[in-house]
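Notes taken during the Thursday session

The instructor put the following on the board and asked us to keep it in front of us for the whole hour. The protein is N-acetylglucosamine kinase. We were told not to look anything up and to reason only from what is written here. First, the residues (318 in total):
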Amino acid sequence: MIDSQPEPIPPSPAGSLGLGIDAGGTETRWALAAPGGAIVAEGRVAGLSALQMGTPHGRDTVRATFAELATQALVHGVPGRVEAGLTGFGGDSELLQRWLAEELHLDPARIHFCSDMEIAYRASFAPGAGYLVYAGTGSIGAFVDVHGQFHRAGGRGVVLDDGGGGFWIAKEALRHIWRLEDERPGSWESSPLAQAVFDYVGGADWAYSRQFIYGQERGAVGKLALAVAATADKDPVAADILRAAGRELARLALALTGRFGPRPVAVSGRAAELHPLIVDTMRATLPGIALTQTPGQAHHAAARMALAADPLNPMTST
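Then, after some discussion, the predicted structure tokens were revealed:
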């Protein structure tokens, strides 16, 4: 966990700040925006998912993460409104609002939850201006039209698909390694990819891989993609997996283009940043389409959205 920025900031009047939250499977980032839109503090805590609300342990984890986030943010000021994007969010936010409101000492009505992809889109485009392909633990193509309606391609979850995301990359690597072990036991010893993966999961015995893939949250599994990317320059199988990830992400952009017409495409998320092969393959698969890679600053966009949603604290230009 990385704590919030330690640098002192000018104090803001109580309730004048907008708090933005971008909660993903790997980590949750937050930011505070002052009137005018300047980001005055930011930090990160453990990952969150709406899917965690389905189990008692998961709900306890969500509450603990909210408490840690509030502890960090309140050091810098009291927000007047909160915009929170949560991966896996399906629209049921009453309990989430109440828990977060208790930690921030706010009226729950001043906290708004939405899909993490809605705020990620706003970090790259104004409504109707383009398509966002986001690759984190999972993957999704997103389009917010000029009427504010959210449209998706993919993003159905790592069990079903989410091709090109970190979990998918990790799963593809483990699948390849263990299929080869079925055919030629011990072949992992001559594979840089397998050596890196087994080192990451704890050992070469199947029990380590089984516990890793089935016994952890999806965000933790997705981090195995780091080991895959680290071997891509010396292992052709790892390179092929990353190229395949690029094609999977390009497919999301093509699906949206086919439905809504040609528009620029932005790709964002930590999985897309693992290795240049991913975005290079996307670009080659999307000829004639303007593709840019953008840094993930959805928590900044969410903080400014929180300000803009508060009639008592309107956004003004800086």
